[in-house]
Predict the structure of GntR family transcriptional regulator.
Amino acid sequence: MKSHLNISDKVYKSLKKQIINEKLKPGERLLDTELASEFGVSRTPVREALTRLSNEGLVEIIPRRGVYVKRLNEKDIREIYQIRKVLEGLATKEATLFIDEKQLQRLSFLLEKAEQSLSSENWKACMEFDIELHGMIISNCQNDRLISIMHNLSTLVHAFRMRLARDKERARQALKEHKAILEAIKARDAEKAKKMMMEHIEKAKERIFNYFGFY
């Protein structure tokens, strides 16, 4: 049983990575027989992996038609960021009161690395800081239900994050916004940190809309 679960998890992680990196394109059909052959496994772990990806909103299972990489529309993105703006703003306000100095030092270190990387156009450091900042905020909000909801949104948000990181000007602007959020948290100004986060997420939504050509 454990071996079977490990196989399913490996298939899931591989497909998830390919979707996020757009190796598997939006709208592309995923055939369980072909994937099973590609991974050298039976169809069962492939189907389990596809079900997990469907639950995360990365694939769409259409009865009698098949499984497709999810093609997000304007309404999908608007709803995701509408929810994220409110909930992550709340999480930021709460986390400002609880996040410890060691974690803040870690974020300051990553911010410095990210700022240095801008000149070399190495966006990996910017991405690392982005992920750590949002992750630490969520994990320190002291609200288990909020953490669970944000975890369910995290996969789609990360997919958007990967797309925007390829554009240097968008990455540069996002880093400035992240720096403002971190400074407010370090000052233990919960209301300002919340405001900065909500403004950042609204701007992130606008960048996503531009990326997909919705404006």
Remarks:
- DSSP finds nine helices and three strands in the chain.
- The chain has a mean pLDDT of 90.
- The beta strands are 29-30, 59-62, 66-69.
- The first helix runs from residue 2 to 20.
